[in-house]
Amino acid sequence: MLKDQIAIITGGSRGIGKEIAVKLAESGMKLTIVGSSTQVSETAEELKKMGYDNVLPVQADVSKEEDMKAVVKKTLEAYGSIDLLVNNAGLGFFKLTEEVSLEEWKKVFEVNVQGVFLATKAVLPHMKDQKSGTIINISSDVARYTIPNGAAYTATKYAVQGFSGSVAQEVREYGIRVGTINPGMVDTYFAESTQGLPEKEDWLKVGDIANAVVYMASAPKHMIIDEIVIHPFAQQYPIA
Predict the structure, then answer these.
(1) Where are the alpha helices (DSSP H) in 80-177?
(2) From first to last of its 240 residues, what are the pLDDT tens digits of the chain?
(3) Helices 39-49, 15-26: crossing angle, 10 deg rounding
(4) Cα distance between the two ends of the chain
């Protein structure tokens, strides 16, 4: 289903994004992986050593419009088309609202919301021309309910959910699908944490999210998967 298709993955250097890259490569896709540091090139080399040769690393800041235009341009030059965009880049922190600085507030919105907007805006002209494409936004379960000490992060995920729904309605006439994957607690590097800590043993694994991306991207063309919400059994959460 996905063999020889082209994907762009933001936040592809490590954690969830890296595992998404591995799973999509296993599915036969050609990849552009985007990261904010030189680690993105190291990740590309790892994938190539695993036998996946069609991996293009691009160091870029998702919050900058020219960077995301350049990502799309380089992908089209390398592969000729774009079939899938996975907006995975994101950051978060948890503080009382009065302890959040304006700079922190702006930064989390620049990456989590503005980054999704700019990457989506950059790929849409091509996807509209080819009358097909899938955009998957990695959001969070807190796009559906609120938590204390997470006002900034939660606000960004509500924004991503609203953005995704509106764009989905705009582009469906072009055969473009837009969906969100909303995970609960995942064992990754989120919020400057460490992956693999003993207390995260029962949390979701990065492979769980990557498998959900493959499932959503592989849906037959007549079908749209609007949203996938995934939680570990260990997590207690409210039912909205």
Answers:
(1) 102-109, 115-130, 151-171
(2) 899 999 999 999 999 999 999 999 999 999 999 999 999 999 999 999 999 999 999 999 999 999 999 999 999 999 999 999 999 999 998 999 999 999 999 999 999 999 999 999 999 999 999 999 999 999 999 898 888 999 999 999 999 999 999 999 999 999 999 999 999 888 777 756 777 778 778 889 999 999 999 999 999 999 999 999 999 988 887 655
(3) 30
(4) 34
Active site amino acids = 153
DSSP of 182-210: EE-SBSSSGGG--TT-GGGTTSB-HHHHH
Residue 232 tokens read as 């570990």
Contact 102, 151 (CB under 8 A): no
CB 21 within 8 A of CB 35: no
Q: How far is 170 from 176, CA to CA, in rounded Å? A: 9
Length of the chain: 240
Instruction: Tell me the residue type at 96.
Output: L
Determine the residue type at 14: R
User: 150 and 141 in contact (C-beta within 8 Å)?
Assistant: no
